[in-house]
């Protein structure tokens, strides 16, 4: 659902936080007493959990890993906290990080608290009372790509971000890593996922560039200014951010960047299929004009992105099947895996990233 970010919901079953322990943490960290603590939950994607914290007169956002996840790898809260600290100092639009705790006795996992950025997040339908007309959506799509390009142009050495990744051999590691993750989480035999895995291993680019990359950049990770929707107030969800090839980041964004003829399971992530949005090829052309990047081999990066998004869905679906999460939204994620595989194979057959069905 698209909505104003100030509208959290009731906490989902099985994702409650220990209010007493959290209250004790704030009192100890801030030296306060007798402040009222209220907790609600923001509508989230399929990864880290996000809560609204009202503590006295303060309003913050708390992030913690999903229950049942491996918190030592893809859900490293301490690392995400460091990323926000570094990016906030170089002008990238992120919420200011405030508090971090690695004490698992409080909430069962490490967590951090950050500034609350109010605005509008576009999910799978238009917010009430807002006309997402073609002219507006073109500006929103351009603004999104401008912010992605700005991130990729940050000097990783001067910013200190270079310490948060290993750019040497990044593409090869990512291809191998995501293929391994897929087969470890495989629940259904999907021939097209196997085809993409084989193709990527045989067609890796020889050269790559280095930037700081988000790795999950899409509309529902952008907070928009409610008074000017084509202005990005903040970029959220930095859990997979690292130093690596910027075109791998672009490829992941393209995989989320749905078009009108794409399978319906791809459309909840971005309202990019609405009239006025740049299509995938136009996104690449615009990004290239902003960064002066050589995007002639973009098909590889799009195939990688499609496979990667499919693996993310597969991992969550496998967790759901094992009973490690009770979120009913995850029950149909196997169809998203198949949709990603279909798009990736289609791009190979047609030699283009904007699909014609």
CATH superfamily of the largest domain: Aminoglycoside phosphotransferase (APH), C-terminal lobe
- Strand-residue fraction? 5-15%
Gyration radius over CA = 20 Å
Provide the residue-averaged pLDDT. 91
Helical stretch count?
11
Instruction: Sketch the major β-sheet.
Output: 5 strands, antiparallel
How many separate structural domains? 2
Q: Find the count of extended strands (DSSP E, 2+ residues).
A: 11
What is the third-level CATH name, the topology of the largest domain? Answer: Aminoglycoside 3'-phosphotransferase, Chain: A, domain 2
What general outline do the C-alpha atoms trace? Answer: globular
The CATH architecture name of the largest domain reads: Alpha-Beta Complex
Low-confidence stretches: 1-6
The CATH top-level class label of the largest domain: Alpha Beta
Structure description:
The chain is an alpha+beta fold and 357 residues long. It has 2 domains: 3-115, Phosphorylase Kinase, domain 1; 120-350, Alpha-Beta Complex (Aminoglycoside 3'-phosphotransferase, Chain: A, domain 2). The chain has helices at residues 19-30, 77-88, 104-107, 134-152, 156-159, 170-185, 191-202, 246-256, 280-291, 298-321, 333-350; strands spanning 3-4, 37-41, 49-55, 58-64, 97-101, 111-115, 120-121, 211-213, 222-225, 228-235, 242-244. It is globular. The model is unreliable at 1-6 (pLDDT under 50).
């Amino acid at each position: 659902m698209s909505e104003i970010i100030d509208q959290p919901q009731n906490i989902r079953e099985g994702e409650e936080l220990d209010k007493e322990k959290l209250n004790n943490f704030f009192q100890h960290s801030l030296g306060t007493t007798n402040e009222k603590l209220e907790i609600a939950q923001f509508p989230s994607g399929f990864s880290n959990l996000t809560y609204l914290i009202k503590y006295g007169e303060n309003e913050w956002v708390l992030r913690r890993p999903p229950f049942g996840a491996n918190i030592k790898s893809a859900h490293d809260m301490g690392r995400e906290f460091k990323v926000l600290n570094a990016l906030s100092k170089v002008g990238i639009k992120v919420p200011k990080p405030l508090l971090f705790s690695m004490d698992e006795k409080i909430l069962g996992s490490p967590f951090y608290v950050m500034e609350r950025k109010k605005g509008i997040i576009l999910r799978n339908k238009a917010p009430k009372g807002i006309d997402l007309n073609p002219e507006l959506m073109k500006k929103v799509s351009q603004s999104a790509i401008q912010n992605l390009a700005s991130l990729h142009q940050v000097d990783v050495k001067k910013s200190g971000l270079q310490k948060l990744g290993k750019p040497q051999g990044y593409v090869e590691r990512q291809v191998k890593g995501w293929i391994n993750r897929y087969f470890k989480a495989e629940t259904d035999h999907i021939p097209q996922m196997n085809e993409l895995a084989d193709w990527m291993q045989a067609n890796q680019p020889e050269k790559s560039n280095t930037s700081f990359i988000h790795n999950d950049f899409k509309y529902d990770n952008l907070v928009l200014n409610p008074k000017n929707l084509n202005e990005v107030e903040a970029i959220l969800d930095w859990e997979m951010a690292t130093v690596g090839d910027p075109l791998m980041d672009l490829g992941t964004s393209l995989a989320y960047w749905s078009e009108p003829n794409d399978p319906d399971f791809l459309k909840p992530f971005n309202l990019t299929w609405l009239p006025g949005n740049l299509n995938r090829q136009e996104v690449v052309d615009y990004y290239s004009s902003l960064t002066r990047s050589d995007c002639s081999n973009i098909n590889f990066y799009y195939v990688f992105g499609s496979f990667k998004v499919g693996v993310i869905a597969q991992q969550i679906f496998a967790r759901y099947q094992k009973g490690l999460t009770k979120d009913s939204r995850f029950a149909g994620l196997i169809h998203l895996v198949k949709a990603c595989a279909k798009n990736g194979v289609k791009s190979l057959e047609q030699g283009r990233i904007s699909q014609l069905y």
